Amino acid sequence: MTGPAPPLLPALRWLDEAPFFQAGLQGYSDAAMRIVARRRGAPYCVTESLIDEVLVRGGKGLEAAALDPEDHPVAGQVIGTDPRAMARAARLLLGLGYDAIDVNLACPVKKMRGLCRGGHLLTSPGAARDVLEAVRDEVGGAAAVTVKLRRGYDDSAESAAGFHRVFEAALDLGYSAATVHGRTVEQRYEGPSSWAFLLDLTRRYPGFPILGSGDVFSAEDVLRMLRETGVRGVAIARGSIGNPWIFRQARQILRGEPPSPLTLAEQRQALEEQFALSVRFLGEAAAGRQMRKVAIKMSRHHPRAEEAFRAFAAVSTNAEWLAALERLYPAGLAVAAG
Ligand SMILES: Cc1cc2nc3c(=O)[nH]c(=O)nc-3n(C[C@H](O)[C@H](O)[C@H](O)COP(=O)(O)O)c2cc1C
Question: Which of 77, 86, 223, 330 lies at 20 to 30 Å from 235 by C-alpha?
């Protein structure tokens, strides 16, 4: 980088409280999941990727992005191609009260790539910069602006150069932070996330808040990523699916305390809370579909995990779901588990 850097946009000061956050997870990190995570220690959350055109069209797509007062601080993550549409989408999210805007340059989904969105933009650094600039200009200093990237499109030297061009564009434009997933777009979710890449990046760009993503499956991994890579914060993604206690445990570990064991009562409490929040935000039918998925993921912590998995996999109505909850997690129990 040449010349003095422009001042950073508002910082992600929420990470001063705890250096990790609920990552964006399509199909999971909705308002209900985010609130359950916050109540257990997540200091900051990112939405699922929201398509610029859907937000700009208004109506139900925009209504679905409305925020609950408990759901702060939160980043609205936008994905798209056209810089003007991305800027308008960011403006709409600011209008809904989002505390930060996160630009997705990481999504590997083919449909997205076909439209030159998400991770595909890493192959067109000029187009990626245009998107980053348009969003920065629109948001001004009104909120933090961040970007989510993968370490490249593939393992070629050309792709590595492309990554650095896009990354440095975010830096030059004064972005508040960048989250880097240490896998390539081609890798999708296979093979390891390169923490060595993250370490190299924090050394090359000291002073710029880099947030790390990839292979964080336990509270211990949060501490390990902080120590081994020097990142400013850790994105907790798959490690939080069906496991919102990871945030409480990460706080305990960072305070130097052993993580307290997870009780069956705590598991019931989390399931009940997310069920009630999902009904409030999504309505009965969609809440039922979502909570079947969530309970299946959470069942691995049950002392009889296999039985709990099968029970939730078999439910098809909300009444059946509640009956399975009652049977597997009897009210008033506080048995240490998992
Ligand atoms: C089911 C699923 C959905 C995801 N959706 C998003 C998304 O909407 N936005 C985003 O930035 N990342 C998304 N990611 C990527 C994660 O945030 C994270 O970067 C990735 O899973 C690597 O971290 P992990 O190995 O610790 O899970 C998604 C990942 C998964 C598995």
Answer: 86
